[in-house]
Design brief:
The protein is of the alpha+beta class. It has eight helices and four strands.
């Protein structure tokens, strides 16, 4: 990629740095040149790691970089709940509300967290610490209700006491207990 092309990709999007573009290039290199669009998920993950979320402007940069329509990148972003489409709190709490979890109190777990955190599903606490979301199947139906913290840590059998312990422990880790 030429310097001119690189500057065009970063124009108006200061958060997409040369280092980010270099990471994109490493991912694209894993695929045949005519299939570079296969790196779209990796590029979205890179942006999210660096910025905490994927903006429409970042999607446009990725689309330009991979030579694909911006709507195609947006479709990937919106299909998977692992990509944040707006800034989130430091701790993203995804509670499974799919049918098996619903039958084993998944919805009750979500409502308990709404009350405890003082936000409704989809919102972030005023201190920026927690974002509460619902999600589809996490593949641990036998452990319901389940939740995922920051897209990485699976928590099982989340009754009200365990939910309280989780939130209180995360607050304590931040010095807010």
């Amino acid at each position: 990629m030429s310097t001119t092309e690189s500057k065009n990709l970063t124009a108006g999007t200061a958060a997409i740095t040369e280092a980010t573009l270099a990471r994109f290039a490493r991912e694209v290199a894993k695929y045949p040149s005519e299939q570079k669009q296969s790196a779209v998920m990796a590029c979205l993950a890179i942006v999210q790691q660096e910025q905490g979320w994927v903006s429409v402007q970042s999607e446009a940069v990725i689309a330009d970089y991979l030579g694909m329509a911006q709507i195609a990148v947006h479709e990937v972003t919106t299909f998977y709940n692992m990509y944040n489409q707006q800034p989130t709190g430091k701790y993203k709490l995804n509670v499974c509300t799919n049918l098996p979890c619903q039958l084993r109190d998944g919805q009750k777990a979500l409502h308990h967290l709404e009350k405890k955190l003082g936000v409704t599903m989809g919102e972030t606490t005023p201190d920026g610490l927690f974002t509460l979301q619902q999600c589809e199947c996490l593949g641990a139906c036998a452990d319901a209700p389940v939740m995922l913290v920051n897209d990485r840590t699976m928590c099982s059998f989340m009754d009200n006491d365990k939910l309280d312990q989780l939130v209180d422990g995360l607050k304590a880790a931040e010095g807010q207990a």
